[in-house]
Structures are given as structure tokens and as C-alpha cells.
């Protein structure tokens, strides 16, 4: 049932609301976002409502996870529209802090997850996952939810957060939620808005190529490195400007895999103009 979502901007107000819910014996879920919400985000809210009594969504465009020359200044910000979507979806509370609330003067602490943060998107975006780990650790401490939900499109991010929660003993369950796609297969992303009409027509080739490559790896004994190299060439032939990576990794550890014998993920990042698209598909080896 939809209702107008309440908005708080201070950590103290956020904690006060959560304490009130806790006193009533209610369970709490957190859905962290950077706003510019789409159906993928709303699927997280829907899953959160099935999992907990109360749902907190956060909207915070986190400056410390953007590198020099990235799109921090132009990242879409549309709080009013996002709040309306959250209200319709049944979210109970929106935490929308200012940068100074999250990082007050003199802030000097970072959280870093070694290993899982390196390679893949970590290679192309140095320091990105340190910024993600830091802001998510703060949100988990601020809200202290029973469960926090993240989309599987950012699969490396999900793996990093799971490891951070495990290593630091955060009392929270981390839930990954399946990727939501357009009818032509393109994974929903706030950055899809950057694509021109021509680029948007090319973009679905990323999912098609990943799906075909995963099926090849599942049913044959082709080495993953060869199949991934062929997939990268296919993407360039389809119109992508460049491919940052296509790699098969273990679904839990993100270790490189050549011949899959356990659940794995085929992950990719490719560029159309100035827009960097990421996607992944699960690979369960044939019995």
C-alpha cells in the first residue's frame, strides 16, 4: 500500500526513527542507492518489503567512489521524482543526507576490502570500491538494519560488501537481488540515460554476447580465456568502442576460472562513447 515516504537528512533523526520501530519489535531493511531510481531499484524495495516490516532507502551520490574525470557532477539527481517512486512502492523512510552529514570536516577514515576490490572494475576505477565500502559501512552503522539489499548487476560490489560484512562482523544479512532488464535484455542502470539513440540500439549486444558465451562455456570444454577474447571481439564488431574486460570468475571468491566446475559469473564492462556499461550472467556448469 502506497503512502508518502518520510524524508530525513540527519543521522540523529534516522536513528530516532529506527529506534522507535525497534521498540515496537519491527524488523528493518535497508536499500542503499544513489538515486535516479528505476525498476531495478524498485525491485529491491519490493523484496525488502517481503523481508522486513519497515524499509529505509538511502539516496546519496557518494563523492568518494568517483574518480577524477568520472561523472560525479553530472550524475542524475532527481530527489522529488525518486521520493514519489519510493512512496508508490511502499518505502517507509528516505534517508537523503548532504555530503557534510556523511563526511564532516576532518573525516579521514576509509574501509578497504583487499583482493575482491582489485581487478575487474577495480582496475578501471582505482579507489572506487574503497569509497563504496566506506559509505556502505557508514550506512549499516547508521541504520543498523536486519537486512541490506543490493542488485546483482554490480556483482563485484555485492561480493565486496558481503566480504566486508563477514570480516567486520556487521550484524546484518546481505541479500543480492536479480538483475532487472529491459525487454531487449539491457540491464537497467541510471547511466543508461546517457546513451544516444544509436548507442541504445547497440547496448543490448552486451547481454546477448554474455549469454551466448556463458552457454558455450557451460556446454563445451573451451577455455574461458579464449571464449572471453572472442566475446570482446564480438562486442567491438557490434559497435562498442572498447571493452574493459570480459572474464569468468568464481561466484563467491571472484577468483579467475578457466574451466568452470562450480557456480561462476561471467562479468563484463564495455564502453559506448563516454558511457561505461557493466553486466554479468550466472554460469552453472553442466552436470
From TrEMBL:
It is found in: Cytoplasm. SUPFAM superfamilies: Nucleotidylyl transferase. Belongs to the pantothenate synthetase family. Beta-alanine binds at residue 65. Keywords: ATP-binding, Cytoplasm, Ligase, Nucleotide-binding, Pantothenate biosynthesis. (R)-pantoate binds at residues 65, 157. This is Pantothenate synthetase. Pathway: Cofactor biosynthesis; (R)-pantothenate biosynthesis; (R)-pantothenate from (R)-pantoate and beta-alanine: step 1/1. Its main location: cytoplasm. CDD domains: PanC. GO terms for biological process: pantothenate biosynthetic process.
Amino acid at each position: 500500500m502506497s503512502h508518502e515516504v518520510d524524508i530525513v537528512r540527519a543521522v540523529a533523526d534516522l536513528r530516532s526513527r529506527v529506534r522507535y520501530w525497534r521498540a515496537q519489535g519491527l524488523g528493518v531493511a535497508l536499500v542503499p542507492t544513489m538515486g535516479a531510481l528505476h525498476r531495478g531499484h524498485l525491485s529491491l524495495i519490493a523484496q525488502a518489503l517481503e523481508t522486513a516490516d519497515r524499509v529505509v532507502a538511502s539516496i546519496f551520490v557518494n563523492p568518494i567512489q568517483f574518480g577524477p574525470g568520472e561523472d560525479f557532477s553530472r550524475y542524475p539527481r532527481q530527489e522529488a521524482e525518486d521520493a514519489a517512486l519510493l512512496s508508490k512502492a511502499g518505502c517507509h523512510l528516505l534517508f537523503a543526507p548532504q555530503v557534510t552529514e556523511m563526511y564532516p570536516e576532518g573525516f579521514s577514515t576509509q574501509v578497504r576490502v583487499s583482493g575482491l576490490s582489485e581487478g575487474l572494475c577495480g582496475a578501471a576505477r582505482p579507489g572506487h570500491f574503497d569509497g563504496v565500502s566506506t559509505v556502505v559501512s557508514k550506512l549499516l552503522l547508521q541504520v543498523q538494519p536486519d537486512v541490506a539489499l543490493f542488485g546483482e548487476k554490480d556483482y563485484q560490489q555485492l561480493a565486496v560488501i558481503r566480504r566486508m560484512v563477514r570480516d567486520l562482523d556487521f550484524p546484518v544479512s546481505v541479500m543480492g537481488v536479480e538483475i532487472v532488464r529491459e525487454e531487449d535484455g539491457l540491464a537497467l542502470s541510471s547511466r543508461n540515460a546517457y546513451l544516444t539513440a544509436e548507442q541504445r540500439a547497440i547496448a543490448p549486444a552486451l547481454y546477448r554476447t554474455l549469454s551466448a558465451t556463458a552457454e558455450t562455456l557451460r556446454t563445451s570444454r573451451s577455455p574461458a580465456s579464449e571464449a572471453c577474447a572472442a566475446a570482446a571481439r564480438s562486442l567491438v564488431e557490434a559497435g562498442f568502442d572498447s571493452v574493459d574486460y570480459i572474464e569468468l570468475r568464481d561466484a563467491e571468491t571472484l577468483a579467475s576460472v578457466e574451466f568452470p566446475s562450480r557456480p561462476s559469473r561471467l562479468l563484463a564492462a564495455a564502453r559506448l562513447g563516454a558511457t561505461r556499461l557493466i553486466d554479468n550472467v550466472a554460469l552453472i556448469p553442466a552436470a
